[in-house]
Amino acid sequence: MIWIEDEDKMDFYNLEVARKLIDFQFENTRVFMNQLLKGYICGFLLPLFISMTATNIVILNLCYTMCFFVQFFFIIFEVVRMWEQRLAYFGQFFNWVDLA
Hints:
- This protein is mainly alpha-helical.
- The protein contains four helices and no strands.
- It has helices at residues 7-13, 16-53, 57-85, 93-99.
């Protein structure tokens, strides 16, 4: 178990309304994270792998430009999260991993 709750709070999570809200939020988060992953793979990893084997300057510049813009998007995404969460952002380990 990742998180242990008091027994009196478990009744709340067993309610149908709470379960539907949690499932709805999980589904939205899953869809969003899948889109981010697909964008990262198509916009950064594939151009990076292509740039490792390409010798044409135009292709290399195109690949590097795509990688730059995808990384810039993710940096801006983290800055927005920092702005929203303020100092609480730095209290979570995975946010430090994202910054690294």
